[in-house]
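#structure-requests
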Amino acid sequence: MGMVTNVINHFNLDFIIPISKSDNNMDRAHKRGAVINEKFWFNINCVQDSTYWNSDLHESDFTKSGPLQVAPKYEELYIHEVLAGKDEFPGLYSFIRKFMEIKGYSDKHKAQIEYILGFLLARAKGEIPTGAKFIRDYI
């Protein structure tokens, strides 16, 4: 979880969605097999471009011009698409890999993290059962 927080902060990612969509996601998440079968609302336009500045605002005593905020674009995605990417959205794993490259992670640490990422992606695709599914099948 700490790495994801660092990635979000480093790349200035914005995953905020309206509360109505968040409520919708929570309703879907409570269904059996939701990790594999349900789509969730996600902001695919999450990269905030800090290279452009708002020229309409002028420096004053209380406000200064700041970076433009990119308009959010919401789309319903499966969890494996959130992780691995889909179309124009690169996926969380792309950001994690780029972060490891920028921060100079050793090959050993990269391999350990790739192993975990592969496991999570396999679970999201249904190739490896979740704990709940495993228990239901076992009983």
